[in-house]
């Protein structure tokens, strides 16, 4: 206790700041004395990553019973949900969640991705979230009506500061409502992300319709949309009045010869993430168009290229044998050497579910 009291007060926030991701340690620090509690408690509740069912129940119960804690919450993740609860207990939990959100006036990021946790019992009663900037939702609408999300949660009056929106694994009902959601969020949205799992539900026509409303985009991420080709992506790029600065197009149906074409609308691009094309396209064909694309991007700084088990391009194994690219560093060297990118600060070959051949181009 003497050592804790001897620490200069001006150093305590700095010390505790290094523990902001270590919940158990922060909880222990908050119990040292009143001074430590004053500085540790805000850090303890600032980021709530709820990935354990028991902890989720306890945390929301605590926040409801101690209303002064909810304004400390800046980031909230609901990744799990206890579906085995009895009806009364489930109702009490949902009430605690709503009560917390009503008091969480400083909430900036909300990740509500557990299917079944976001329901029509909750959505109509969601409060105004005046400082919410980032929202990530589950795309499974088995337990909610997609139109209600747009009406209540995405209403500009409910989330006036919303800048970043992500949807995970959208189903048919959510996809049909997606253009209306985009209309609600409008030009204030700066970041838009769709993550699918090799789904054909997201089409060019859907994105073309949505692009009319997403004129303020600076960051775009589209992954696993296997039916998506160039028109939908091009519409989003063209309608961005500020220019896309960060682009991830992964696992799409876009052929390699489209890469130089979309580059014409990426003069503000700083970061790019791509996957290898589908097996129907040769690696040589892909490499030539990728080189042409990269050389026309004046501000590119970060580049990520990876492959997965479902998009093995033809000829890759042969090229590794011919070029002798044995490791990732050799790959980095070849990218920068072939493309002569003066502004490139970082080149990554992220290889998921891959074999040795993925290290070469």
TrEMBL record:
Residues 5-51 form the F-box domain. InterPro entries: F-box-like_dom_sf, F-box_dom, LRR_dom_sf. It holds the Pfam family F-box-like. It comes from the Eukaryota. This is F-box domain-containing protein. It comes from Meira miltonrushii.
């Amino acid at each position: 206790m003497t050592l804790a009291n001897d620490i200069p007060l001006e150093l305590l926030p700095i010390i505790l700041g290094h523990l902001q991701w270590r919940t158990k340690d922060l909880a222990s620090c908050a119990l040292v004395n009143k001074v430590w509690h004053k500085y540790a408690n805000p850090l303890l509740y600032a980021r709530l990553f709820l990935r354990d069912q028991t902890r989720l129940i306890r945390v929301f119960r605590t926040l409801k019973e101690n209303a002064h804690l909810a304004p400390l919450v800046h980031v909230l993740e609901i990744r799990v949900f206890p579906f085995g609860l009895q009806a009364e207990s489930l109702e009490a939990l949902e009430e605690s969640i709503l009560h917390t959100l009503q008091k969480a006036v400083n909430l900036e990021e909300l990740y509500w991705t557990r299917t079944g946790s976001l329901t029509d019992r909750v959505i109509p009663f969601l409060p105004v979230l005046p400082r919410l900037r980032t929202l990530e939702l589950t795309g499974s609408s088995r337990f909610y009506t997609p139109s209600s999300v747009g009406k209540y949660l995405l209403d500009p009056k409910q989330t006036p500061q919303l800048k970043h929106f992500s949807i995970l694994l959208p189903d048919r009902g959510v996809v049909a409502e997606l253009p209306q959601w985009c209309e609600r969020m409008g030009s204030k949205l700066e970041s838009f992300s769709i993550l699918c799992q090799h789904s054909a539900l997201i089409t060019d026509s859907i994105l073309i319709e949505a692009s009319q409303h997403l004129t303020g985009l600076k960051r775009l991420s589209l992954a696993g949309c296997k039916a998506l080709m160039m028109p939908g992506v091009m519409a989003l790029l063209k309608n961005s009045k500020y220019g896309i600065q960060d682009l991830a197009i992964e696992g799409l149906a876009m052929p390699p010869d489209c890469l130089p074409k979309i580059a014409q609308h990426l003069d503000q691009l700083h970061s790019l993430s791509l996957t290898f094309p589908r097996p129907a396209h040769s690696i040589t064909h892909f490499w030539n168009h990728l080189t042409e694309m990269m050389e026309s991007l004046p501000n590119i700084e970060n580049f990520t290229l990876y492959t997965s088990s479902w998009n093995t391009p033809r000829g890759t194994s042969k090229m590794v044998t011919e070029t002798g690219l044995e490791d990732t560093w050799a790959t980095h060297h070849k990218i920068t050497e072939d493309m002569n990118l003066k502004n490139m600060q970082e080149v990554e070959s992220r290889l998921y579910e891959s074999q040795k051949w993925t290290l070469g181009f």
